[in-house]
Amino acid sequence: MNTHSLHHSGISRREFLKFCTTTASLLALPPSMIPQIAQALQNAPRQSVIWLSFQECTACTESLLRTYTPATVDKLLFHLISLDYHHTLQAAAGHAAEQALAAAVKANYGKYLVIVDGSIPVGNPGYSTIAGISNKDMLLEVAKGAKAVIASGTCASYGGLPHAHPNPTGAVPIQELIRDKPVVNVPGCPPVPGSLASVIVYYLTFQKLPHLDSLKRPLPFFGQNIHNHCARLHFYEDKKFAKSFDDRGAKQGWCLLKLGCKGPLTYNACATLKWNGGVSSPIEAGHGCLGCSEPDFWDAGSFYKALPEGLHHRHRHGEGRGMGNGMGNRMGGRMGNGMGPGGGRMNGGGNRHRHGRDQEE
Ligand code: SF4
Predict the structure, then answer these.
(1) Closest ligand 1 atom to the C-alpha of 307?
(2) DSSP character for 217?
(3) Which of 24, 69, 337 is nearest to 201 (CA)?
(4) Which of 145, 149, 229, 326 is 20 to 30 Å apart from 254, CA to CA?
(5) Residues near 61 by Cβ (< 8 Å), separated by ≥ 6?
């Protein structure tokens, strides 16, 4: 993507550099890396991407497409990559679509990136097929020629809603089937679009994936919990909790912990990257975090049941991490399967008033 093509795409040099600067910042790279990113993106051939959609709701794609300023992510991203096949977005249908997939695989075999949204049903190959091919067979066949696989969203990362108890289709995440390629998980229901876009830009710049945590999530976006960056954190520290969605505390923006917020156990960038071009996030809009980027969040009990006192305090001190680390057990949910990676990096959200009474409405 050279300056000429940028201009023809309606993207100014200023916008492009802003995109590079924002991406470097999102990835926690030093400013000195910005020229390298800009140079790499300008000189690199457009990266071939094949996007497969399996058991999903299309929100992952919608999320990316609904991204806009300040980084003009969608606009720029689709000039950095060649989206050679996308189940949902492509105009082709029927045999033409399958020919397009075969052609995309053949043209860039060994060089393309595969992005997957949705889980794979392995209970029966007939539960989900495309052109008569089971999701599992299609994934394995296409992934053979991939440099890396990006699981977009919670379904592809951990199984998501299809994987929830009793998991009638035997849904599994991508990482359970792809063992011989680099896999990165960008969970979220849907994922924060800036995270996915930045992972792609990182790959285009450095030809490798960013550092991952033990759940294969990119650390720049999943290294901190939502609670630590929450706009309501000072209310939490002052023990000012909303007790209903329409009480005085809720209207004044108090902490949503008592209304079921899972922010202390959820690792994602919602509070920093936000949504709709950085305008807001679910918690800022008045609803507690559901924990949608953690494994098995659907089975972790009620979205509106408050975390046990000991659990969110414990996490403030960095003892354990993630909803899979036992929230299901403590909340009477079905999860509690130990998927959470214990020994978290969380550094606490402040200890003021820890022993005081909760502020009530
Ligand atoms: S519990 Fe939820 S609403 Fe309260 S400070 Fe933490 S993340 Fe924000």
Answers:
(1) 1
(2) -
(3) 24
(4) 326
(5) 51, 53, 86, 88, 89, 117
Ligand 1: which of 225, 232, 281 to mutate, judged by most atoms within 8 Å of the beta carbon?
Answer: 232
Amino acid (1-letter code) at residue 228: N
d(CA 33, CA 48) in angstroms, rounded, equals: 24
Over residues 236-294, the pLDDT tens digits come to 999 999 999 999 999 999 999 999 999 999 999 999 888 877 788 999 999 999 999 99
Identify whether the C-beta of residue 299 lies closer than 8 Å to the C-beta of residue 326: no
Question: Cα(255) to centroid of ligand 1, in Å?
Answer: 5
Q: Is the CB of 230 under 6 A from ligand 1?
A: yes
Residue 124's contacts (CB-CB under 8 Å, 6 or more residues apart) are 169, 170
Q: How far apart are CA 22 and CA 38, in angstroms?
A: 11
Evaluate if pTM is beyond 0.90.
no
- Report yes or no: 193 and 158 within 8 Å, Cβ to Cβ: no
- The token pair at 217 is 């999530």
Amino acid code (one letter) for 95 = H
Q: What is the pLDDT of residues 184-236, one digit of tens each?
A: 999 999 998 888 888 888 888 888 889 999 999 999 899 999 999 999 999 99
In this predicted model, which residue has the larger pLDDT, 140 or 39? Answer: 140
| 51: enclosing H helix or E strand | strand 47-53
